[in-house]
Structures are given as structure tokens and as C-alpha cells.
Amino acid sequence: MKELRKMLTLLFMVYWFTYVLGKCLLDYFSGDQVEIVAIMLSALGWGVLPALGSYAGLSQVVMPKLRYLESEIVEEPTFFEKREERVSNENGAITFTNLEEICRARYVVTFADGEEGVIKMRTTLSLWSRGVGYCIKFKDVNQEAVMVFIPISTGNRKVEQDAKRLKLLVEGLASAS
Q1: At a CB cut-off of 8 Å and minimum separation 6, what does 155 contact?
Q2: What is the pLDDT of residues 99-112, one digit of tens each?
Q3: Of the residues 11, 35, 61, which one is the last residue of a structural domain?
Q4: Which DSSP helix (H) or strand (E) runs through 58?
Q5: Do both 54 and 82 map to the same domain?
Q6: For residue 92, is it left (φ>0), alpha (ψ between -120 and 50) or beta?
Q7: Which of 15, 58, 122, 171 is the most buried (most CB within 10 A)?
Q8: How much is the CA Rg of the chain, to the nearest whole Å?
Q9: Per-residue model confidence as pLDDT tens digits over 47-72
Q10: Transmembrane segments in this chain: where (predicted)?
Q11: Do 55 and 79 fall within a single domain?
């Protein structure tokens, strides 16, 4: 959630600065007196409106997925767009410990429980990309790792690429012994 606040703050600052710069240039070139303090104060409102609109949209699409990734709930809610992959662990080469270690090195791990065999993680969030969330369910009993890929925002093209990358990583662990 910290990244979301950073994104909204950055978005507000971009709108605020753009409004101040645009209004100052417009007043200057039209021959009006440039009142920088008045422009900066009016820019507060014009900077807040788009940031609040973005927050409303993000809270409907992104926040429920981030809450799920940070929660202890194992089963995915049904409203998520998701993709599932399975990796066999017949030779027992994958252990929860080494899987968690590799995930922590490459992703932001939001929840891990060795007893349940669940690792939830995500890529970093930015203003331009909302990233991908992952839930890996690892069970020694059925000798497989089930990976669920959850795009944090809809229409995310990174899901396919990241899904292949993580699947190859886990398959590499499975064939390592």
C-alpha cells in the first residue's frame, strides 16, 4: 500500500506542477499579471481532483487484489482474473524453503506460510505498471507446485511474460537434483 500512496502523491505533484506551469505561461503570454501564489493555491484543487479520481479507480481494481495478496487467505476470490500453472515435483527437488528463498530474492513477498505451503508475492508497482501478483501453493502430498498469476490491473500484458519466467524458475528448481 506504501507504493500506492507514493504513486498518488507523484500523480498529484505532476498535475499540480503542470497546472502551475501552464497557467503561468498562459498568463505571461496573454499579457496578464502572473500571480504565482494565487495560481499555486488554485492548482491545489486542480491537482487533488485527478488524484482523487485515480484513487477511486485504483481502490476498485487494485486494492482488493493487494489486500488478498497481503492476507492469510489461501483460496483466491472468484472475481479475480487469473491464470494457473502446475509444476510437477515428483523427484522432491523443490522444497518450500528454497522456493521461498528464490521468491524473496526476485519479488516482493507479501505473505509466506510454511505450514500451509503458500507464498504470496508481487512485482513492484509503479505509475506506469501495476504489476503482477503470484500465489504459489506448494504441497508435498500431491508432489506439485500450483502457481496462480493474478494481474493487479486488468489488461496487463506482463502476466504472460512473468508467468513463463516464474514457471521456468520453478521448473529449474524441480530439475536441479
Answers
A1: none
A2: 888 888 888 888 99
A3: 61
A4: helix 36-61
A5: no
A6: left
A7: 122
A8: 22
A9: 888 888 888 877 777 788 888 888 88
A10: 38-58
A11: no
140 occurs within a structural domain: yes
Could you tell me the three cell numbers for 71?
Answer: 492476507
- Provide the number of structural domains found in the chain: 2
SS3 per-residue string spanning 68-117 = HHHCCCCCCCCCCCCEEEEEECCCCCCCHHHHHHHHHHHCEEEEEECCCC
Question: What is the rounded CA–CA span in Å between residue 176 and residue 91?
Answer: 10
Q: What is the domain extent for residue 8?
A: 2-61
- Residue closest to 107 by CA, chosen among 46, 171, 166, 24: 166
Amino acid sitting at position 100 = E
Judge if 102 and 162 occupy the same domain: yes
Q: Do residues 22 and 45 share a domain? A: yes
89 and 142 co-located in one domain: yes
Q: Taking a C-beta distance cutoff of 8 angstroms, is the pair 145, 99 a contact?
A: yes
How many alpha carbons lie under 13 Å from residue 163 in its C-beta half-sphere?
Answer: 16
**162 lies in a domain?**
yes
DSSP 62: T
Q: What contacts 88, CB < 8 A, 6 or more positions away?
A: 143, 144, 174
| Contact present, 138 and 103 (Cβ < 8 Å) | no
Cell (9 digits) for 158:
506482463
